Amino acid sequence: MIEFNRAPHVGTEELYIKQAIEGGKLCGDGPFTKKCSAWMKEHFQSQAALLTTSCTHALEMSAFLCGIRPGDEVIMPSYTFVSTANAFVLQGAKIVFVDIRPDTMNIDETKIEAAVTERTKAIVPVHYAGVACEMDTIMDIARRHSLKVVEDAAQGVNAWYKGRALGTIGDFGCYSFHETKNYTMGEGGALLFQDEAYLERAEILREKGTNRSKFFRGQVDKYTWMDYGSSYLPGELNAAYLYGQLEACGQINEKRLRLWKQYYQGLEDLKEAGLLELPTIPEYAVHNAHMFYIKVRDLEQRTRLIGWLKEAGILSVFHYIPLHSAPAGRKFGRFSGEDVYTTRESERLMRLPMFYNLSEEAVDTVVRRIREFPEFC
Description:
Number of helices: 14
Number of domains: 2
Largest sheet: 8 strands, mixed
Low-confidence stretches: none
Distance between the termini: 24 Å
Shape: globular
Number of strands: 13
Helix content: 25-40%
Strand order of the largest sheet: 1-9-8-5-4-2-3-12
């Protein structure tokens, strides 16, 4: 059996978890939480990096910090995970979906401005597969219309746009450290931002509405309820596991890129023959090999190919059902313009096994099985 995903493991995680236990500080904001935050601030050149319990919660925090109110509109692609929309729906926003680019599966930056209304308050680009959206255009639109930009970089940790880390370009950036991501803490995420004016409010929001962070830094003699908040701070054991991953960031990234290239080279002649499509990486982007996907002719062929791989013990999956077509999407959002690519491309895309501990022999097996698919022969 070739699994679709397995959480990465580099070997130092158990040591750090043991150290966290021995240190006696298991709730949030202990030594390993601080180490992870410091690592991200330095590596990604971010003014602030706060660990959270999930990327979902990082998105929820960003929606609150953006000042989203009932009736506001937020622009995003429909081809994304539900958390991207839910975070803003929880604040009462109306979601305005726009079409994607078929080459990167990212939001089509040329469709955003037509979706802007007097109610629009934010744009949420989603960096699909760790490949950057065209951020210069998006930031220009935001600047001219006084909009916030929240980067959903759940899949974009250690990926780059013109030399800048994804998640550090907009007003807020949201990372995921779920077990399906390149670097993991089981469940977890991070909120990044560059304007330190947000820091105190973000800390209060993350610490259940209290100024507990200032108390532990000795800045106040007791902590108290200051504002709205929730429990967005992960435990120290999770942070200890993540720190081992972050230390091995280069090692993990190099291995994933090697596997990604192996897939690409093994399937490139099928692409040249017009039998399938492979991922596109624009010149402005440095991707992180978060996933390897292929696109086949249509939904029916994808279903047959997934079944063909499954018969050989290979697990592959399709990805998002476009949000605008879901019951909640129709209730809480609307589609701006025409759905030219979102539904069509989503029905053609399938993800192949991709994780750090995947062997090169397994990739060869997947490639060989795809090449043997009767409709490709």
